[in-house]
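hiii so my PI (J.) wants the whole complex modelled not just the main chain, which honestly fair. so below is everything: two entries, each one labled with what it is. i double checked the lines twice but i was tired so who knows lol
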Amino acid sequence: MSTHTPTGRPGAVTDDVRGAWRVVAEREITTRVREKSYLYSALVMVVGVIATVVLTSVLGGRPTDYTVAVTDGAAASVVSASSDAVDRADDGSSAAPRQFGSVEAAEAAVRDGDVDAALVPKDGGYEVIGDSEVDSTLSSALTTVASASALLNNAEEQGVDLDELQSGSQVTQRLLDPDSDDAGARSAVAFVFLILFYVTAVTFGMSIAQSVVQEKESRIVEILAAAVPIRAMLWGKIAGNTVLAFAQILVLAAVGVASLAAVGETSLLSAVGPSIAWYILFFVLGFVALAGLWAVAGSLASRTEDLGSTTMPGQVLLFAPYLVAVVAGETVKTVVSMVPVVSAMVMPSRLAEGGVPVWQLVVALAVDVVAAVLIVRFASRIYERTLMRTERRIGFGEALRLSD
Amino acid sequence: MLDIAALSRSYDGVLVVDDVSFQVVPGRLTGFVGANGAGKTTTMRMILGVLAPTSGEVRWDGQPITATRRRRFGYMPEERGLYPRMKIRDQLVFLARLHGISREDATTRAMELLEHFDLADRAGDLLDSLSLGNQQRVQIAAALVHRPDALVLDEPFSGLDPVAVDAMAALLAAEAGDKPLLFSSHQLDLVERLCDDLVILSQGKVVAAGAVDELRGRGPDRYRIRLDGADAAWIRDLRGIEVRDVDGSTALVDLAGVTASELLSTVVAREPVAEFTPVRQPLSAIFREVIR
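here's the output for the full assembly
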């Protein structure tokens, strides 16, 4: 090795080429975050997440405060007593009586929608009056409480020991799968994540391809390739865009969790919370595995317009799991949830729905890591061969046959 | 010392650079000339490691060159290019850091170069908002921003007006200092004026290489004799010379057996002489001769 010292200030030069990828990654990040279009699209996605959570909450199992019309004190106390049962059946809901002078006035209030139902005395018991229907939660709570209180009153009048009467009648509930009542909401969350991941993966995948082709198009690639090994540029781009994609997913997940908490969906939050971590882990692994192919798509193109055709394999690879996740049956999902890249979208949604054996999770993770290493290595070879060929677009087959 | 040792490169079986060897000596400007397609750019790309040689190698101080060493080179490719939508200062700092310079040093150096080119007030402008001439200046700055140990410049003078050529020549002479500097050019008069050493490439092969003075000395010793009024036709009859041309009182002769002083005394003995001058061959003549 030569002992010739550069004319720059001593200590100002790092002779380690291996650190060059960091400089490339830093440029990828700083140029991207300064782009208005990038900021807007990120903002749109954040707003989308908030809107989805709010809408799901409004349309779905939102707590309701029922008002029930009554005409006498006994019915009023039945309604008040049933409030607990309503709350048990539908988290956060309640029921309150409202006094009316006559059955007719109560019926009119039901018809006008001022109250949710009416509870009026009828010979030998009570009648629940609804307009076209009575909410089943409310109806069953009222019925249970009314008949139980009538039974207790009668028993008391007959001088029966109340404790004895009730003995053996206590029924409690124990759920084997306590989260299953959130299943619908959880698959909705999985679906939203799927879309966000797909969009994020395509956005930053395209960003890698564009960044590569722009360097080819502007011809700066020759200066870059003369300065640092071509592989360092590839790693820098993959690292920079993975960090950006990871950050975006992290922000979206945080916004999602925060808005779930804000609208009071605490039970749904505790159900999907842990699986969000899996989503992010699988997403990053899947993104890195595909990142090499995006870079190759860029290096095969000679102009930005070529990207449409050279990025096709990447787009298909991303869209396929999206389709699978949406339409496939359980068996197919189980198998593809362990296929690399595809697993990034399918496995987390299976995890969110629950019941995934640990070995399948381990296999999916291991296969994904191995695939990421192999694909990036393979991509790096193609990238090195094709990057300097700026004159025209190169086909995939041709790229494989090219020599150094 | 940059040593190009038996570099060859073929594309699809066609040899475009054939066993090229020459040296770029520190402190001496080395010109690289040759017709279009002679293989200059391909050779320069191999020197920078942008293109892998089919055979042969590049050495630095006698050792095979490494990526770390190449990182300290400055390169201006034939196809100019920078990031069009990046601020010129950021762009220069990025390139310097890519070459291994710290951010602080890179920033200082970038501003220094921009000031030299009177572009300091445009440091925050995007490259594509600059005129072509200014873009070319930034391109030169990009090759110099990391204080390279060696410079390889492909056609650095192309597209420059005469004033810019002079400025560029002065800058290169100052920047090169005691470093190896290789540049290619089509403008032979410029190469002749600036270069200490010369490498002439033809159809992928080195057809001449060495100091410019030495190369020009290769031709015959030619003298122009102008008599003081008399007709010079009789000079044709002298022995030991080859007469190239006679026009009135002027003759152009190549020495072929006699020395210059012998010739001069012979002529002076017969007629008064107004002028006796050695004629140096222009580079273009040497060039045409060797690439034939």
